[in-house]
# Entry
Amino acid sequence: MVMSGPHSPRVFVDADVLFAAAASPSKHSASLVVLRMAEITLIKAIASEQVIVEVERNLAEKLPQALPTFRLIVDRSLHMVSDPQREDLVPFVGMADPKDLPILVAAMQAACPWLLTFNQRHFQPGHPDVTVLRPGEFVSRVRMLLTDIQP
# Structure
């Protein structure tokens, strides 16, 4: 498990982003870049148990050779949080696709202002405390912030 500073930005990572990172033929894919940022403690990447189980299941079915890479990513880059309880979802019904509502609520419970996914439409209308972005959009925002750093 990765250590990070108390002020590291918290980013919730959805299953499709982790799947893409584990299966990526490129070392420079946005999904992998996000997880490398977590590995070197620039951000704190968080996923729920549901996310980890979903990626494990999908990789085992579709791309079993990527499982060791995925497990290494989890070990080096991710902080895992518990899934929300069923009753925790009730106040947020309608803010995301029912299947993805536990992901949105887990991101909120983990105090993550960003949720990274390739399925942004599944998280609509969303919640004002969580910005849903594709990994590439998040990386672009980080790059813009870094260009503003003055020597």
